[in-house]
Design goal:
The protein is an alpha/beta fold and 339 residues long. Helices cover 44% and strands 10% of the residues. The chain is elongated, with a radius of gyration of 22 Å.
């Protein structure tokens, strides 16, 4: 473990983060978990080794028996320490999976090109299927449309590719809208304020604060590969899909780094849920640590201008269909163009 921490390449390969992110001297992951979330060392098993074990297992999709062989430890000891780190990580997730600015007082640079049309947009929502192991009794309930058991995990993502909410525990057979309705009941769900909204695909019902595309028109970016938008509804759908794609990219980055999200070992359902949440929390932690390589970075985010505020406030009472029509017209007027 110590040898891996001293070698940046081995540290990244084993623990999926570089040695400075993983260890001291700043407020890094180990220190946070020990000081704020109850991770402790014992005479036989140090907290650094326990955290390294957890990161290696999540980053490389390892079961407890594989961890036992790697660390040359008793299976019971490995399982106990994994559970202790998992509890600390779930507690840590409550502090890192959340909006950075709950008031949404700024406009992200990704939206600047469209200003003020999408200035009320605060992120995107979608679900992803995480393969899980379930009992025979529950197997059919967890079968998704592709025929394998999964959890339908709800995620709210901002334009910095951070998760601001993760909802776990719903079976793969459950529809995306039902998963979202369940997510609304969570204490930590970041409901959009008046005039703000999330981008969603056509699988979600029309609800205030959730802006979907024009139905019965081309939507996905790949559908425009050989033939561009031919009318205003398709123009809106093209740019809506382009912006909403941030959630797909965020899922991809998280799953590629934390391989446990691509296939869960045979753990109890509660532990599987905790691991999913922990992997998304680790994604946010790494994103936050690497967010601004220079002090000039945060200046890229601009506050809402008076004009933007007027636009957002003027649309606060509109239903989503009316707002979508305003933006559709605006895209044409601003010269985004049709082919």
């Amino acid at each position: 473990m110590e040898a891996s921490l001293r070698d940046p390449r081995r540290c990244y390969e084993n623990f999926r983060m570089n040695s400075e992110t993983f260890h001291k001297p700043f407020h890094k992951l180990h220190t946070i978990l020990v000081v704020n979330h109850g991770l402790q060392s014992t005479q036989e098993f140090g907290s650094i080794e326990a955290l390294g074990m957890f990161l290696w297992a999540c980053g490389h999709k390892q079961c407890m028996r594989q961890v036992k062989e790697r660390l040359r430890r008793a299976l019971g000891t490995v399982s106990q320490k994994f559970g202790e780190v998992l509890r600390a990580m779930v507690s840590f997730a409550d502090t890192v999976i959340m909006p950075k600015d709950p008031t949404y007082s700024t406009v992200h640079p990704a939206l600047r090109t469209y200003s003020p049309l999408f200035d009320g947009c605060i992120g995107a929502i979608d679900g992803t299927h995480v393969p899980v192991c379930v009992s025979r009794r529950s197997h059919d309930d967890y079968l998704n449309m592709k025929g394998w058991p999964s959890q339908n995990v709800l995620a709210v993502v901002d334009f910095d590719m951070r998760f601001t909410f993760v909802g776990v525990g719903m079976a793969g057979a459950v529809h995306d809208m039902a998963v979202l309705r369940e997510g609304w009941t969570a204490r930590t769900f970041p409901h959009p304020p008046s005039g703000r909204y999330y981008l969603v695909d056509s699988g979600y019902a029309k609800e205030r604060g959730y802006l979907g595309p024009h139905r019965h028109n081309r939507y996905w970016k790949k559908e425009f590969k050989y033939r561009g938008p031919e009318h205003l509804q398709e123009l809106f759908n093209y740019h809506h899909s382009k912006l909403r794609n941030v959630v797909e990219r965020t899922f991809g980055v998280a799953k590629n780094k934390w391989q446990m999200l691509k296939g869960m070992p045979n753990y109890p359902t509660e532990k599987q849920c905790g691991i999913i949440v922990s992997c998304f929390a680790l994604h946010n932690f790494v994103r936050d640590e690497n967010a601004w390589p220079s002090t000039a970075g945060p200046m890229l985010v601009r506050p809402l201008s008076e004009y933007s505020n007027q636009w957002v406030e003027s649309n606060a009472e509109d239903d989503m269909a009316t707002l979508r029509d305003w933006i559709t017209t605006g895209l044409g007027v601003m010269g985004f163009g049709l082919r």
